[in-house]
Predict the structure.
Amino acid sequence: MSATARGGTSMHFRVGTKGASGMHVGYITRERAVLDREAGIHFHNMPEQVREATDYTELRANLEAHAAAREDGELAAHRSRGEPRTHYRAMLSFERDVSTEKALGMAGEWMQCEFPQGRGFAVVHRDTEHTHVHVWLDARQVDGRKVQLSERQFKNLDSAWNRIYSLEMGRDPHEYELKKEQTREAKRQHWQQKQRPEYPPRTRATAEQLAPRYERREIGVAAAREGGDRPGGTFLEQVRHVAGRDFKEAQSWGELERRLERHGLRVETKGAGLVVTDGQQHAKASSVDRGASRGKLEQRFGGSLEASRAEREAFGRDSPEVRKVVRDLHTLERGQWTAQDHGQATRHAGDASTRRDQLRWNVERAEQASRAFDKALEDVYRDPAGARQGFEAFARQRGAESAAQEMRQRPEQFGQLRAQEQRRAWGLIRSQDTTAAHGHAVGAAHEGRRALEARAQAPHPDDLARADFTVRRAEVRRQELGRAVQGFDASRTRAQIGLGAHRLNGSQLKELHRWTTPKQQQLATKLREAVQRLMPAQVRELAQWVAAPHRAVAGHLVQRFKGLIHDRGQERGRE
């Protein structure tokens, strides 16, 4: 069931997929989405042994194991016809940012209203532009009975959420119910006339707007499948990083496989789809790039992967001279790709370092703001630590701005104020004056709001550790590619191509054109013509130079060979 009104109530509820309960729990509790960790989860009648954990990683493992065990029990006990119901899933969305406590409170109220005997949990996600809550609900209640929903109850689950949501957000609850009824009436009338219903107007996202959401979802699913967030990211993220450009730029199956081979990857068909694998892990090609599905690649390359591989097997039966030139063209091609990868890795390393520095600065700023707030509280309260706890508790319920305003106007709400003793009537009358504390409370309120805002922007230690790892990995990759670029001799490879093409006869040249792309054919032709313009003695000397990598080309031949081994224009055309 899905129910949405633009800028208003939004909730989705459906029966969970059989066999996917544990994986779904792993997906909705992934660390990169649950920024509040343990504070971002609300438990509803969950067993105590599941909730007891020393840290968030252990809590995730407990929840995944519980969901998987409950599902196995339901599948084993299923005796009736039809698909077994092992769990339910729901998602509750918010039109504007709300505090974690408020979001969980609203979700908990909905669960208590609709499933008072149910067993499940809600978790707040803050990894997208809109805060939302995922709910996992066991199909069996605490009393041992299955959750039974009539068709009417199922269709009206959103009504309870609409009442809760509208009350908290200051909206008219009838607005949502009216649009819901209009949609139902439109369906009813047009289905009777066997026409397509004209639904109430709504704004739909474009494919470009949906792409980031799709990518985040795919990475989340991969993280759940691989058992958690790894420091280096999921296998899918790694493939996207090193080979995403290859899927976009490849012009044939052969070129795609040569590009992936540089990274220790290959593509394989799986069922009706296509996967990328390193021999141990795999990811869907369409998850790496939306245009890399099996159907789209076959349409782009003009044939299937199997046909391309069968055709390349026949390449081994061609003349050795042709195979040598093709291999040299591929070597030059890989060298150019590696140079491009090195440039991309250099930029990525710089970006990763900048992001890591920004996170570190956010941490330092939060620490400085926290110290300034503590110092300001010392001038206002007798118990600064207790006052801070009260301030932060108030902010969690009402927001940082409301807490700051409360401290400015009524600072005594957060603790006993510091007072100065005043004496009157020759010291016979003594009184406590809190005027100075009230004055300092204005500055403390400002520092308190600043500390809360800085802490909200400060990264979690896990995110900072992940950023450090990303910088180290990016730097290692940049250095490895740098060494590969330095070790590649493009000049000798170009000379080898020219010499090899020079030795081919007419029929062999036709074979060469069969196994090369138009750009490769153009390059081979130009290098062949450059060798043909040399004298026989110069050709022999060039062949000796190519065969002996340690030997430098003679100075008087540098200008003669310039068009052959140093033609940057040709290389730019090839790129």
Summary: Residues 320-378 form the longest helix (59 residues). The longest strand covers residues 87-93. The mean pLDDT is 82. The chain is about 60% helix and 10% strand.
